[in-house]
Amino acid sequence: MKHSPVELNDLPDEILMIILKKLNNVQILYSLIGVNKRLNTIVHDPIFTSHLTLMRCFSDDSIDPLPDPILDRFCLQILHEIHHKIQWLNLESSSMKRILLATNYPNLFGLGLYDIEIETALSLVIDIKSSTLLELHICLKRFSDCLYLLDGRFNKLHTLHVDIDTIISSSDLTNNNQEKLPDLKRFSLYCRMPTNTYNTLIEPFLQRMPNLEKLCLNVICDKKTFTDGNELKQNIINHMPRLERFEFYICSGIAVRNQIYLPSKEDIQHTFRDFKDDQVISYVDYFQEDPYSFCHIYLYPDQLKYYYNVTNNFPGGLFTCVRQISLYDDRPFEHEFFLRIAESFPILKMLSLKNSKPQNNKLHRESKNDNQNFSIIKYPYLTNLTFYFAHDDYIEEFLVDTNICLPDNAVHLNIDYEALSRVTHNYTRDKTRINCAKLGSLCLNDRRLPNYAKDYFPLVYV
User: Fold this and answer.
1) CA–CA distance from 251 to each of 248, 306, 309, 360 (Å)?
2) Within a domain: 378
3) In terms of domains, do 339 and 462 share one?
4) SS3 for 162?
5) Domain co-membership, 336 together with 214
6) Using CA atoms, how far apart are residues 182 and 338, in angstroms rounded to an integer?
7) Strand spans (E) along 420-459
8) What is the sign of the dihedral through the CA atoms of 129, 130, 133 and 139?
9) pLDDT at 146 (0 to 100)
10) Of 304, 320, 342, which residue is a domain's last?
11) Residue-wise over 291-325: b if at least 16 C-beta within 10 A, else e?
12) For residues 286 and 265, what is the distance between their CA atoms, to the nearest angstrom?
């Protein structure tokens, strides 16, 4: 039987649309726009032109600009042709200015800005009619940058999603910016690092949003008392009479040395008795050796990005959007604990661990001289591991391939040079060889691997 090749242009429009919907919009426009009249009509469909991500995103959350040939063609030709159809743009810092000034965007209502200096972003966004901007997703370094966004220049903005590295106090932040934000309807605040300004900055900031309908809050904070349901009602919810949905994960930490009253899990949970949704989860971690305690409260965990200080008390659940977690306890983490973590955080990318206690079950497993009763755990999206304050047993847990299977050429490992040398038996141990060969890069606290370790880490520059 003779087979004849089928070209893309031979397929019916319906089949072409099914195929193209599975591909990247930028690649579709770059490859097919202007090829012929029929394909040109198809790729001008709003499905391919309304929402564009004009940058490259990698598995480790790093971002790069588009290759120069692709960026040149978009700025010189493609954006001019489809500018009136573009409703949303995701941009990175180095190419943002060129893209925003390449043409006018009369129907643009949403922007996603990444790795951006706030002053540059604001000046450029103003040039493209900030009065039409309705929704903004942005990653920022400082809380003050968030306040700049809400100084009145975006008078139609109703949705703002902010991911901030740090929230620290300063006199100008505390004393200024007290005006209400009546137009804001949906707001999300995610913060990577702990803050001690929850009561002095975050709560007063949220109280400026009286017409908020949806709020998402994902923070870790150092405080004098635990954040509970009563505090959420008094300092946030009661200031938002139109609030319909409140998604939150708040991890609050307190020093327990001078505490007279230490609330239990039941005490914290009781403060949520009047909440409309009875699915609020709370638990408290008190440690035998550490004079510091944590209280975790959350609702709708599927919307969160960060989870802090996961301990053996972790109740489980499914966190489909969390990419970064920290593990801490003064009790051992056993192998089964890491299986629970993998199941609860299926797209986990960044994991840091702090635990100085050796595993109890390790000796039992070694005495049996096999791991047949233990599941090999997989973290398929993992890109970053940090073990600076971890017992050697946990380094072994991740580097011995019969315990955990690491993804190929993806993981960056932060670890002390001496600890890595011990666990790998000075880079000769067979049990850790497979996973070490998968590591993409290492940070050894300003130390470098010896030349003879090159074959043990073939993907790492020595």
Assistant:
1) 10, 10, 8, 28
2) yes
3) yes
4) strand
5) no
6) 45
7) 441-443
8) positive
9) 83
10) 304
11) eebbbbbbbebebbbbbbbbbeebeeeebeebbbb
12) 10
Q: Which among 321, 227, 232 is positioned nearest to 277, based on CA atoms?
A: 232
- The whole-number pLDDT of residue 277 equals 61
Domain count, the chain: 2
- Tell me: do 256 and 382 sit in the same domain: no
Pick from 402, 342, 406: nearest CA to 366? 402
Whether residues 268 and 337 fall in one domain: no
Q: How many whole angstroms separate alpha carbon 197 and alpha carbon 223?
A: 8
Whether the predicted model's global pTM rises above the 0.85 cut: no
**DSSP three-state, residue 155:** coil
Of 286, 304, 322, which closes a domain?
304
Q: Report yes or no on 316 lying in a domain.
A: yes
Domain housing 163: 134-304
Residues 151 and 280 in one domain: yes
- Which segments of 73-185 are extended strands (E)? 88-92, 110-114, 135-142, 159-166
Beta bridge partners of 297: 250, 282
- Phi first, then psi, for residue 361 (nearest 5°) are -85, -5
Do 282 and 416 sit in the same domain of this protein? no
Pairwise CA distance, residues 299 & 310, whole Å: 16
Q: How many CB atoms lie within 10 A of CB 445?
A: 11
Distance CA 192, CA 415 (A): 21
Please tell me the predicted confidence (pLDDT) of residue 438.
94
Q: Considering Cα of 218, then 223, then 229, then 230, what sign does the dihedral take?
A: negative
Residues 150 and 276 in one domain: yes
- In angstroms, the CA 235 to CA 231 distance is 6
Map residue 415 onto helix, strand or coil: coil
Statement to judge: residues 330 and 277 lie in one domain? no
Torsion of CA 161, 248, 60, 62, to 10 degrees: 20
pLDDT tens track of the chain, all 462 residues?
A: 444 455 667 778 888 888 888 888 898 898 888 888 888 888 888 889 988 999 987 766 678 889 999 999 999 999 999 999 998 888 888 888 889 888 888 888 777 877 766 666 666 655 555 556 788 888 888 888 888 778 776 777 899 999 998 888 765 454 455 788 998 999 999 998 999 999 999 999 999 999 999 999 999 999 989 999 999 999 999 999 999 999 999 999 998 876 667 889 999 999 998 887 668 999 999 998 888 899 999 988 777 899 999 999 999 999 999 999 999 999 999 999 999 999 999 999 999 999 999 999 775 555 555 555 668 999 999 999 999 999 999 999 999 999 999 998 779 999 999 999 999 999 999 999 999 999 999 999 888 999 899 899 998 876
Residue 442 located in a structural domain: yes
Using alpha carbons only, what angle is made at residue 191 by residues 186 and 194, rounded to the nearest 5 degrees? Answer: 140
